[in-house]
Design a protein that fits this description.
The protein is α/β, with parallel strands linked by helices. The chain has three helices and seven strands. Helix 1 packs antiparallel against helix 2.
Length: about 160
C-alpha cells in the first residue's frame, strides 16, 4: 500500500482551511440547497438551467469539502516554535536577492497545500523552495530552471 503523503501546514494555513471548511458546511451548503429548491419550483427540470447550475455548484462544494477533509486528516502542523530562524525551513519568511537581475524577493516557505505564488508563498517542494531549504543568511543557492540556473543570495530569514 502506498504511503499517504503528509500535508505540511503552517498555523495560518491550517486556520484558513478550517475556516473554509466551516463556511462550506454551514453557509454554502444551505445557499445551494435553497437555489436547488427555487429552481425545482420553476417546473420542468429537464430544461432548467438554474437547476443544472445549482446541482453543479453543489457537486463542487461537496468535492471541496471532501478535499479539505483529506488534507486535514493527513496534516502535519509546523508551529512557530518548530521554526529555527538561523536556517531556512517551512514556516520561515526569507528575503533573497536574485544576483542576475539585482532584485530582492521575499517568500514564505510553506507546504504544497498552502503554496500561492501571488501571495508570496512558495512550496517547499518547488525548485526554489527545495534549493532554499537548509540555507543560511549570506549563503548563495542555485536553482535549476528550464531557462537555466538562477543564483540567489540569502539576505534575511524570519519566522512569522
Amino acid at each position: 500500500m502506498a504511503e499517504v503523503k503528509k500535508n505540511i501546514l503552517t498555523e495560518e494555513g491550517l486556520k484558513a482551511l478550517e475556516d473554509e471548511l466551516q463556511d462550506l458546511k454551514l453557509n454554502r451548503r444551505k445557499e445551494v440547497a435553497q437555489k436547488i429548491k427555487e429552481a425545482r419550483e420553476l417546473g420542468d427540470l429537464s430544461e432548467n438551467a438554474e437547476y443544472d447550475a445549482a446541482k453543479e455548484e453543489q457537486r463542487d462544494i461537496e468535492l471541496r469539502i471532501e478535499e479539505i477533509d483529506k488534507i486535514l486528516k493527513n496534516a502535519e502542523l509546523v508551529t512557530d516554535d518548530d521554526v529555527d530562524s538561523s536556517v531556512i525551513n517551512i514556516g520561515c519568511t526569507v528575503r533573497i536577492k536574485d544576483l542576475e537581475y539585482d532584485e530582492e524577493l521575499e517568500y514564505k516557505i510553506v507546504g504544497s497545500t498552502e503554496a500561492n505564488s501571488l501571495k508570496g508563498k512558495i512550496s517547499n517542494e518547488s525548485p526554489v523552495g527545495k534549493a532554499l531549504i537548509g540555507a543560511k543568511v549570506g549563503q548563495k543557492v542555485e536553482v535549476e530552471t528550464p531557462a537555466g540556473i538562477i543564483e540567489y543570495k540569502i539576505l534575511e530569514i524570519t519566522k512569522n
